[in-house]
Amino acid sequence: MSLTTSSGQKLPKERAGNTPAAPRKMDATERAFHEEKKVENVFDRVLLAKLWPFVRPHAGYAVASLLVLLLSSAANLLRPKLMGDVVGYAEKGDAAALLRTGWLLAVFVILSQVFGFIQQYLMQVAGARAMADLRGTVFRFLQRLSLRTFDRTPVGRLVTRATSDVDAVGELFASGVLNALGDILLLVGIVIAMLKMNATLAGVTFAALPVVGLIVSFVRKRSREAFRDIRIKTARLNAFLNEQVSGIAVVQAYAREKAMADEFDGINDGYRQANKSSVLYEAILDAAIELVSTICIASILWFAGLRRFAGTGEGAISFALLVTFTQYVKQFFEPVSMLAARYTLLQSALSGAERIFELLGTADVEDDGVAAPPRTGEETASTSQEKLVPGSDAVVLDHVDFGYKEGVPVLRDVSLRLKAGEKIALVGATGAGKTTIASLVLRLYDTQAGRIEVLGRSVTDWRRRDLRAQFAVVPQDVFLFAGTLLSNVAVGDAKPDPVRVRTALEQVGASALLAARGLDGVVDERGANFSAGERQLIAFARALYHDRPLLLLDEATANIDSDTEAKLQAAVDKVLEGRTAIVIAHRLSTIKKLDRILVFHKGRIVEEGTHDELLAKGGVFAKLHALQFKGD
């Protein structure tokens, strides 16, 4: 609970304590930690089917958008015909018909733009709401992931899933990818109109379609792979940035700015290269379709010129027909070009969807307990605090074995029993397994062997929310959230009680802090504007405010100076009164009054007794005590 991994996660000290410090360098192990594996190919229709549940609640906007799209396509389809009529009436000198058709053309142009605005607005509303639901789902899923997942996954990679990957999927709506249906309908209408007007010219136009098909086929697989690479490189970039920002104090203290900048340049260059590939394939597609379109129009003009010079018979082509047809050709390749561009964006969106659903398919999530009642919703689920029965077992560990890594045990055959109202201390050298006990009791991790009970029930039979609602936890490294002093003391309470918060702060000796900051005092990110001692006082106030039946103190006074500790001791005694408490102690002077002391050594309980009994034994505790107070 007190050390930090390269991903920014807090780890129990015994995990980090077993690993000697090493110079900072990008070795193969670290590269493997930051690098992300490629996701297996998933069929597009499967991904789209997985996205549908997020779109379905907002399908009304999407349906309305598609209906307006049909009107817009119809208006666009009539424009070339009206333009040809304008030319024809001009050739005939029919001023009245020319004016009438000109006004009608202006109306259709305006309607086309109005329909386009409404359609795009409705589609983006549907997309924004669907992506908000998807992002919320990803966030709630991250909260359910086990701590083991956070231990081995860079935080920046997980953040990428809820941010840039969701944004990539959102491009399906923002860029109008779903308008492909309108493009297809417009193409069908144009094909019918062109065939009715002149089948020979239409044949010249359609001869270019196989070329377009070959180009799209060439780009399709390559662009999808390029966008997958972009998503991987984005996750790695975010993971590295998160690590460096979190550890900026260490970077600056050891003058590692230049080395970290060079390392970032390497990661950034990979990200640039990935984007360069996607831009290349997109440019190839756009340029190729534009080239085919231009060649097609030139061929039609050449062919029409031959027919026009051939005479005025049945095969001749009028100027009005030529204008109309060339406009249809331009419109024919516009949806083809848009379909190609939207297909490229679809590849980007689906590559993001692949990574999101790969995360959501992770099986390493916290369950709610096999005997727990069915949940009716995360937000509405209630958490109740149980009553302690005097003389009953509050916490029991029965022959517990545990290790964070396979083959590396941290706890070996640990058994202990706490009665209601009893207060015990866990002491021992760093890495002995003390903090792991707290993690297992809270079920942050599950045991490999043995059984743990809290208030007479196995921890696996508790809903995790209800289990943790029985404990007030005061860690050594206190995390404060950006907000106010009021919201941080009452963290987790939807409606903080200012009176209770003020009382709790006063009881822990934080009257001066309260007077200086006030309940509405601003708390910066991670409590950077508070000292370590002030953050610890706030943590004690949290414990008092929530008033839970069980108390876990994880070296809670390690970061407090002697003067503050003296002021705090009376409040600590009051907090402990009438509660079952597990105190993980570093300062042995703070545990003299506790009922029992359990001494851990290499994952086992080697001694047990009161403070005076253990000193009299002259064993491990006595040696720890002598080392800590040898200066006296």
Give the strand order, joined by hyphens, for the main sheet.
8-11-12-5-13-14
The Rg value, from CA coordinates, equals: 35 Å
Q: Which class of one domain in CATH terms?
A: Mainly Alpha
The fraction of residues assigned to DSSP E strands is 5-15%
Number of strands: 14
Specify the biggest β-sheet: 6 strands, mixed
Characterization of this structure:
The chain has 632 residues and is of the alpha/beta class. Among the domains are: 55-360, ABC transporter transmembrane region fold (Up-down Bundle); 386-469 and 587-632, Rossmann fold, CATH 3.40.50. The protein has 23 helices and 14 strands. The strands form 4 sheets. Strands 8-11-12-5-13-14 form a 6-stranded mixed β-sheet, with helices on both faces. The chain has a 4-stranded antiparallel β-sheet with strand order 4-3-6-7, with helices on one face. Strand 3 (393-402) and strand 4 form a beta hairpin. Residues 1-25, 39-43, 309-313 and 370-382 have low confidence and may be disordered.
Descriptive tags:
632 residues, alpha/beta, ABC transporter transmembrane region fold, 4-stranded antiparallel beta sheet, 23 helices, 11% strand, disordered N terminus
Helix/strand layout:
Elements: E1 3-4, E2 10-11, H1 13-17, H2 28-34, H3 44-55, H4 59-92, H5 95-144, H6 147-152, H7 155-162, H8 164-174, H9 180-197, H10 199-206, H11 209-246, H12 248-253, H13 257-309, H14 319-360, E3 393-402, E4 411-419, E5 423-428, H15 434-441, E6 449-454, E7 457-458, H16 464-468, E8 471-474, E9 483-484, H17 485-489, H18 498-507, H19 511-517, E10 522-523, H20 532-546, E11 550-554, H21 562-576, E12 580-584, E13 596-601, E14 604-609, H22 611-617, H23 620-628
Parallel strand pairs: 5-12, 5-13, 8-11, 11-12
Antiparallel strand pairs: 1-2, 3-4, 3-6, 6-7, 9-10, 13-14
Helix pairs in contact: 3-14, 4-5, 4-9, 4-14, 5-8, 7-8, 7-11, 8-14, 9-10, 9-14, 11-13, 11-14, 13-14, 18-20, 20-21, 22-23
